[in-house]
Amino acid sequence: MIYFHNDYSEGCHPKVLERITATNMEQTPGYGEDLYCLQAAQRIRTLCGNEKVAVHFLVGGTQANLTVIAAALRPHQAALGPAGAHINVHETGAVEATGHKVLSVPSTDGKITAQQVRSVVMAHRASASFEHEAQPKLVYISNPTEYGTLYKLSDLQALSDTCRELGLYLFMDGARLGYGLAASDNDITMPDIARLCDVFYIGGTKVGALFGEAVVISNPAIQEDFRYLIKQHGGMLAKGRLLGLQFSALMEDNLYFEIASHAVRLADQIRATLDKIGVPYLVPGTTNQIFPILPDSFLEELGKNYMFTEMKRVDGDHRAIRLCTSWATTQQNTDALCRELERIAAL
User: Fold this and answer.
1) If you placed Cys at 73, which of 77, 145, 278, 344 could pair as Cys (CB 3.0 to 4.6 Å)?
2) Any bridge partners for residue 142, and if so which?
3) Secondary element (H or E) of residue 142
4) Where are the alpha helices (H) located in 73-225, listed in sequence order?
5) 142-182, pLDDT tens digit by residue?
C-alpha cells in the first residue's frame, strides 16, 4: 500500500534526525532554555524580519492552537473562524475545554473574509443582549486552509486592517505553512505574516520535523506570560532542546522551503494527470493537498494499492477525496500514482 492520505506518515527529514543523533549525549538546560532553542528562535526572527517577535516551541498543532487562544482571550471571549476551521471540527472541543467558545461562519473554500468578520462583530455589538453572548475577540485562519486554499496578500491585509480597527487579534494556524509559501500562486512572505498577524505558527510536524510547531508572537499583549500558559496547558517539554534542534535544522540553508517546494512540485504533477483525464475538484488548489471528485468504481480500484482520505460524498456515484504529498513523498511513488490514475481512467 502506498500512502497519499496525509503529510505526516513518515518520521522526519534525515538532516533533522542527524542533528538529534549528533547531539544525543549533550547535556543542556531544559524547558526550551537551551542554546538550540535560542538559535532556532533567532533564525525565525531573521526570517520574519522582526527582532521583537517572541518565539516558543510546542509539540503539536492542537496544543499550539489552544495555548495561543487561551493566552489571547479573557474568559468571556471567543474565537471566530470559518466553519471548516481545524479548531471547530478536528480538535475534539479543545478550545472549548479551555473555556472559550468557537464561533463559525459559512465557507466553501476554508477561508473567512474581512467582511464576514465585520458583520459578526457589528451584529454582536448591536445586539440588545450582547453581554449574554460570547464576545468575538480573535479571528482564526489557517494558511493553507483545510481545503488547501491560500489567502492572498490582499486578503490578509484586509483581515489585519479589519481586526485592528475592531480591536480583534488575528491568529494564523501555519501547520502547513511551508507548503503554502511554496505554492506557485502564493504572494505572501514570512515578513508579511509577522507584520499582519498578531500571532502565527510555523508547522514542523507536517513539514519535515518529527513533531513540533514554532509559535511566533508579534503582539506584546499576547507575549506577556506566555510561558505560564505553555506550562499550564501541558506544553512545556522538559527536553525542550528536541524542538529547538529540529527547527534549527529546518531553518538552516533554506531546508524548510526546499522540502516544501518538493512536495508542491509532486502535487502539481498529480494535478496535471487529473486534469489530463478530466477530473473535477471539490476545491481547486496549488499546495500539497489535492481534492479530486471521482466515481465510486474508480476509488474502489484505486484503493487496492493507494491510501487516500475520504472527504465527502458529492452525489450517489461520486466522492471527493484528498490526495496529499509531503516532504517525504518520492518521485517513484508519484509516477506510479499518476500511471495508475491514467490506467483506471482508461478502463
Assistant:
1) 77
2) 173
3) strand 135-142
4) 86-89, 94-97, 114-126, 153-166, 177-182, 190-196, 220-223
5) 999 999 999 999 999 999 999 999 999 999 999 999 999 99
Q: How far is CA 85 from CA 76, 140, 282, in A?
A: 21, 8, 17
Q: pTM for the full model?
A: 0.97
Running DSSP on this structure, what letter comes out for residue 168? -
Handedness of CA 209, 198, 34, 46 (dihedral sign): positive
Query: d(Cα 322, Cα 204) in Å, to the nearest integer?
Result: 21
Cβ neighbors of 231 (< 8 A, separation 6 or more) are: none
Q: Could you give the C-alpha distances from 88 to 63, 66, 96, 133, in angstroms and in order?
A: 14, 11, 9, 18
Nearest-Å Rg of the Cα atoms of the chain is: 21
Helix (H) or strand (E) holding 80: strand 77-82
Write out pLDDT tens, residues 277-312: 999 999 999 999 999 999 999 999 999 999 999 999
Number of Cβ within a 10 Å radius of residue 232: 14
340 Cβ partners below 8 Å, 6+ apart? 302, 305, 306
What are the grid coordinates assigned to 295, written together?
466515481
